[in-house]
């Protein structure tokens, strides 16, 4: 078979199994994303290893699938942003700030303590803490959308906290890299200025230019012109977030979604993107997380350390982000829900861990443990979130 036929076959398998697993997951009272994540583990090297079966000769097939998955998470966060508005997030700024900041500092401190207690050098222990501080709310956002509570106080506080989390983790990562390379405060200051520049420029464009361009394009005789324009802007925001702001691309696409949410074409864009994203790209993203993990590689000799790291990863976010939400004015139930929503490390945790091993801050054994932790935290988040909302029958308070 040609490489293209191999790719189409694997994509067909991934989408079929993802949708089937998502359906079965809803049948047992869990969010569909839980089943899609779990089937990814089964299709990955842990069991079937679908991208390396005997008839697969294309050595780059896994990389191509991963690139499709990256587009999936960008679209997912764009759709999450599309459902929200700035004035809604602004009402929860205090909660977002406290939850985002404490949701980083507490796990980082726990990771540093665990690494030091297990005999790691200070640099490795500090970077272990940094990986525990990362958060990816793409999984939580999808779960909240399924539960129809994304625009609740908890949903808005969670998404806002993720932005603060992203900023603080990037600053700590910049500081760590600067110290490791002999740099100083100048590099940290530059990283902060880049973030401010990105937020200012993207915000100005989104508020003053984007609505006019969208209105103009909606009147032109171009087939799906508005959808194509939204797709281009989403990608540009994602690229700019990484290259200009030094932030995660999902933060940029989330902002792009909020900008388009202010336009008159919001519903049209939401319908068009929903078909593309949920029919193809998003299922590939969820499955790809499992495809990149081989549970068999986890060393049994380090099982105790792995369990401790996973426990610290979950409790660190639950305590840190939850306490921050409580200090910001949420009740204990809402604070717990925010803390659970911040548990998933997803693709952001994998990115930070990859930087650590490529820069020599993490040994291979520690990297394997962190990848396993990312999988565990990503898998436990959807059912925990579902349980936290299902425990109370009354509808969550709207923002």
Per-chain topology:
Elements: H1 3-27, H2 32-43, H3 61-82, H4 86-90, H5 93-117, H6 122-133, H7 138-146, H8 153-180, H9 185-218, H10 225-243, H11 249-260, H12 266-291, H13 303-327, H14 332-341, H15 346-358, H16 364-390
Helix pairs in contact: 1-2, 1-12, 2-12, 2-16, 3-7, 3-11, 3-12, 5-6, 5-8, 5-13, 6-8, 6-15, 7-16, 8-9, 8-14, 9-10, 9-11, 10-11, 10-12, 13-14, 13-16, 14-16, 15-16
Strand content: under 5%
Average pLDDT works out at: 90
Helix content: over 70%
Ranges with pLDDT <50 over ≥5 residues? Answer: none
CATH architecture heading: Up-down Bundle
- Whole-number count of domains: 1
Order of helices and strands: HHHHHHHHHHHHHHHH
- In the CATH hierarchy, what is the class? Mainly Alpha
Shape: globular
**What class, by secondary structure content?**
mainly alpha
The radius of gyration is: 21 Å
Number of strands: 0
Distance between the termini: 54 Å
Tally the helices: what do you get? 16
CATH topology category name: Na+/H+ antiporter like fold
Biggest sheet layout: none
Task: Describe this structure in a few short sentences.
This protein is mainly α. Helix content is 76%, strand content 0%.
């Amino acid at each position: 078979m040609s490489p293209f036929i191999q790719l189409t076959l694997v994509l067909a398998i991934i989408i079929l199994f993802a949708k089937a697993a998502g359906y079965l997951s809803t049948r047992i009272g869990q969010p569909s994303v839980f089943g899609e994540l779990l089937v990814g583990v089964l299709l990955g090297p842990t069991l079937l290893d679908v991208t390396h079966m005997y008839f697969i000769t294309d050595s780059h097939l896994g990389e191509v699938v991963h690139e499709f998955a990256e587009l999936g998470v960008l679209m997912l966060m764009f759709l999450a942003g599309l459902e929200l508005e700035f004035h809604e997030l602004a009402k929860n700024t205090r909660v977002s700030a406290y939850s985002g900041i404490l949701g980083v500092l507490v796990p980082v401190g726990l990771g540093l303590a665990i690494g030091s207690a297990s005999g790691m050098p200070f640099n490795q222990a500090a970077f272990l803490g940094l990986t525990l501080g990362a958060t990816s709310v793409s999984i939580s956002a999808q779960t909240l959308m399924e539960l129809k509570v994304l625009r609740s106080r908890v949903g808005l506080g969670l998404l806002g906290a993720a932005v603060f989390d992203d900023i603080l983790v990037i600053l700590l990562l910049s500081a760590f890299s600067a110290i490791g390379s002999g740099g100083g405060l100048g590099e940290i200051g530059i990283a902060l200025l880049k973030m401010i520049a990105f937020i200012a420029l993207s915000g100005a464009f989104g508020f003053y230019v984007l609505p006019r361009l969208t209105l103009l394009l909606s009147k032109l005789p171009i087939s799906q012109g508005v959808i194509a324009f939204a797709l281009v802007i989403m990608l540009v925001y994602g690229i700019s977030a990484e290259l200009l702001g030094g932030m995660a691309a999902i933060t940029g696409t989330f902002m792009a979604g909020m900008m388009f949410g202010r336009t008159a074409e919001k519903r049209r864009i939401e319908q068009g993107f929903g078909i593309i994203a949920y029919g193809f790209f998003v299922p590939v993203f969820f499955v790809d997380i499992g495809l990149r993990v081989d549970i068999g590689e986890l060393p049994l000799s380090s099982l105790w350390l792995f369990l401790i790291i996973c426990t610290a990863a979950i409790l660190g976010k639950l305590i840190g982000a939850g306490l921050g939400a409580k200090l910001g004015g949420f009740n204990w139930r809402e604070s717990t829900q925010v803390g659970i929503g911040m548990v998933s490390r997803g693709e952001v945790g994998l990115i930070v861990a990859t930087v650590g091993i490529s820069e020599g801050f993490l040994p291979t054994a520690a990297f394997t443990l962190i990848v396993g932790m990312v999988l565990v935290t990503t898998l436990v988040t959807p059912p925990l979130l579902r349980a936290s909302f299902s425990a109370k029958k009354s509808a969550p308070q709207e923002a």
